[in-house]
Amino acid sequence: MSKTISIHSFRGGTGKSNLTASIACIVAARGKRVAVIDTDVQSPGIHILFGLGEGKVHRTLNDYLWGRCPVEETATDVTPGPVREAGGSVRLIPSSLSPGEIARVLREGYDVGRLIDGIHALNQRLELDYLFIDTHPGLNEETLLSITISDALAVVLRPDSQDYQGSAVTVELARKLDVPRLLLVVNKIPAAFEPAVIAEKVAKAYGAPVAGTLPECAEMMQLASSDIFALRYPDHPMTAAIRDIASQLVD
Questions:
Q1: Radius of gyration from C-alpha coordinates of the chain
Q2: Burial of residue 99 (number of CB atoms within 10 Å: 0-12, 13-18, 19+)
Q3: Which of 23, 105, 133, 219 is least enclosed by beta carbons within 10 angstroms?
Q4: Residue 197 to residues 144, 159, 188, 189, 200: CA-CA distances in angstroms?
């Protein structure tokens, strides 16, 4: 049976999409059929990490939401070489970067129920082992429903007061929605901070387990979203930490 995992942050800029891409590829490299859906239709971006620049995307989530095609036709095979060699696969359901499409979403909204139906259909029609949802930051109807149907939720936050407060709201809502598995990931920790102290503080404040702490990383900044960190730097200590987070989410 497939599992749906949402990766969410209350604010933008937490590194959520980079983390989602790395986790998806790590899991797929275990010989699993994985898909990633970008539900941030207002400001999509994860497709860049998978090398799907302008002109390489033929169908998007928007096409499904507006009734132009079945949802499975929006899934593009983006399986990286190392993942394919390991017997796994990655499909990406991107959102459109077209200014007209984004403007339409902002102006008209969309049928969130249709999005949820599409998520269920993807799991069945693509025969997935795992579907990762890269959510829109903040809290809206789409995010709440995505969380509701998820088998696990990772909340990504930075050691920042605004992140702490907003993430507290997300965690409380997740508890009310009875998410089966809730984990926290603290990302972009400055070198001056002690990760173990941060993890203890966050776990105590939210009453939820911290799956991992990830430092600010020069290699990540230099990569500038041009590739998937865990594949570009498979032996990096940060990749080891991301592998551990992935295991906690799917095991």
A1: 17
A2: exposed
A3: 219
A4: 30, 11, 14, 11, 5
What does the pLDDT read at residue 97?
85
Cα–Cα distance for residue pair 38/135, rounded to 1 Å: 7
DSSP state of 68: S
Residue type, 74: T
Q: Which residues pair with 182 in a beta bridge?
A: 153
Query: What angle do the packed helices 16-28 and 237-250 form, to 10 degrees?
Result: 70
Q: For the chain, list residues with pLDDT below 50.
A: none
Rounded alpha-carbon distances, angstroms, from residue 67 to 71, 118, 134: 9, 11, 22
Q: What is the pLDDT of residues 130-148, one digit of tens each?
A: 999 999 888 888 888 888 9
Contact 82, 39 (CB under 8 A): no
**Distance between CA 112 and CA 234 in Å, rounded?**
37
Bridge partners, 183 (sequence order): 154
Residue 151: both structure tokens together: 């088998």
| pLDDT at site 54 | 66
How far apart (Å, rounded) are the C-alpha atoms in residues 110 and 108? 6
Question: Are the C-beta atoms of residues 21 and 50 closer than 8 Å to each other?
Answer: yes
The strands making up 76-77's β-sheet, listed across from edge to edge, are 76-77, 89-93, 33-38, 130-134, 3-8, 152-157, 182-189, 210-215
Model pLDDT, residue 49: 95
Answer whether 36's CB lies under 8 Å from 69's CB.
no
